[in-house]
What does this fold into?
Amino acid sequence: MSVQILIVDDHSVVRQGLSMFLSLDPEIEIVGEASNGAEGVRLARELRPQVVLMDLLMPVMDGVTAIATIRSEMPEVEVIALTSVLEDSAIFGAMRAGATGYLLKDTEAEELCRAIKAAAAGQVYLSPQAAARLVREVSIPKSPELLTQRETEVLSLVAQGLANKEIALELGIGEKTVKTHVSNILSKLGVLSRTQAALYAVQIGLVPVPAAKE
It folds into this structure.
């Protein structure tokens, strides 16, 4: 089953380029394109794609506002910020809004395809540059509620990019149990997304900072 994606970018050349190389992957299906955040939100409501590729700097409605709107209305739709901007405010804004991933536009096609499939499975996918900045600045409560040993194990695997199904197999527990653990982890840490929880895991040294891929 192919991953259905919506491309949101105000530059038609970028949309055409993305469509061209993403359509070469038989596991990815482009269901729509939008030229600004407002149009992206409207099409997300209409098409219910699994993943939205979202530019951040756009007219009418910016990408961060669009991400927040989509994630609050349609939590089942994952969003990857795909941008040329590597500024702290943009990265933090996108992550706080609920983006599952943050990639730069110079990302190789193969890695972008991997990120889309990872996002569809609910996995966190960040460019190493964005991850390094986020880890340095991520805002986590100074004394979060203590996690149980099992929750710590689950958090470690979330931070390593595993989806719930893979975590269930790794730990020999049910997928529903994993979902419950993840929900408890987010609640105890006082964060809204798996991405923020993963960054916390990196910050406390549970897993290493993502390294640049070869």
Q: What stands out?
A: DSSP finds ten helices and six strands in the chain. Residues 142-203 form a domain with the Arc Repressor Mutant, subunit A fold (CATH 1.10.10.10). The CA atoms of residues 202 and 208 lie 6 Å apart. The chain has two domains: 3-126, 142-203.
